[in-house]
TrEMBL record:
Name of protein: TRAF-type zinc finger
Database matches in PROSITE patterns: ZF_RING_2, ZF_TRAF
UniProtKB keywords: Metal-binding, Zinc, Zinc-finger
GO molecular function: zinc ion binding
Domain (RING-type): residue spans on this chain: 26-62
Top-level taxon of the source organism: Bacteria
Keyword Zinc applies: yes
Organism whose genome encodes this protein: Parendozoicomonas haliclonae
Amino acid sequence: MQGARTTLTINGTEWSIPLNPLLEDCKICFNDLAITRVCDSEHRYCLGCYDKFETGECPECKKELIDRKAALSSQRNYLNALEKTTFFCLTQNCQWEGSFKQLEIHKKLCLETKERCSFGCGEHLFRYQIKHHQTECRKRPYKEGNLVTDYETVLEVKQLKSECQDALKKTSLEQGSKNHLYERLVRIFPLVADAALEEHEPVTQPTGTVYQKECAYKCGFIASSIKEISSHICPNVPLTCRHCKNHVLPKEIGGHESICDERVVSCRLCGVDTKQVLLALHFQSCIKHPEECPQCQCMVVRQELEQHKQTQCLSRLIDCERCFTSVVFSELEAHKQGCWLTKPVTLREGKPDAILLTPQPDSVGPFYQNGNNSSVIYMVTTHDQLKSLPKQHHKHVFPRDLVLRCTYDGEPATMQESFTIWGEKRWMLCLRQRYPNNFITSRADVLDADSNIICSFYRNWYPKITDIEINANDRDKDTAALHKDEISRLEHYSHPSHLRIIRFMKK
């Protein structure tokens, strides 16, 4: 958005500038800049008005004027502000903008400024029209034979000649016609006589076959002397573009600078300044540029895309916290309602001592418990998940990047899975309370759907000890491990139900 602007008068010409409290017109003459401090109250006027103060007092506060040297010195700050200011031409249809130093040049060359034809015809034209006009101007310099005058006079001489010839053929003329013819002859005859006698003065404008010097910049001006060509201000003298430094015709400089590829522009998205020619390249890395999310096809600001894909996109894949199946986020709630691991599981189903397991509240992973008793917890898995353990090579049964959380013996706990084939193949589970008070002696077993023990976990590196010390500082004591023999038993165990239950039980 274009900022606020004001007008400023310099040497009688008004210019438009961005609003600046340091720069204003003289409040007396309104014809020049008020950049001269005249008193200790910081009142300012133009230097011309300062020199005209005959009373020696400031016209506003009546304080004594400061001396002229101090007044001139006070202009420094305002001149610095002028040099940093961009000026805009106020002439209608002119789009020129430039620095303070370029004002006088533009003032002389602005093609949208009107001026009178120099041939004296009285026409008031735009500068860009002058060249064409002067090729047809009735007062343009013209030579016919030896007669050097303007084009209009040459036409009148020819017309007068014709009328004189007609008058000679007539026996008499009316008195009015005689007087009119006489007045024109008196005016024209000296010109014709001078031409006939070759006593005319050298003309200062280009005419016919008189010696001519054409402007090197092809503006149409033709001089008849070195003095004329040296004093000629040509509107076609190339100006330097302040962006690309190329030379451009004055009539084209405004339009060129407004579209120059080297001009500095601000990215409309992030506000970073860059060259126009590099803007398309900038958009490829602009942090505010919209990009299409590959998952939901929504347009997202580039710097927020990764976060969107991970935490906000409704089409992102997310693992169910119970069964670990990847589902689209927008369908997660519907999946949870149908997920089999969100429903109760019955061990020894159909028997008098059946055990009803319900999902643990706020758990992450397939954790169950019987009633409110969290000193015995169950992880519900399947035969297909565990039978592949012999073939695993550092692959996990549960998602590696998901922290399994449960409640054990009344306290929040986490479950960590690991797998190793160093020395002897082992599958390990480490259950630890988040805020342990002491270690808890426990045991871990793998059960079938009838609560029969298929195999038991042992302490890591201790294949004969089934006591697992939960929360122990020694990681070998608090880690439950299945060794290769137990893993093999799991692989070959057969039962009508596909369920396999990992039970951690406080002893």
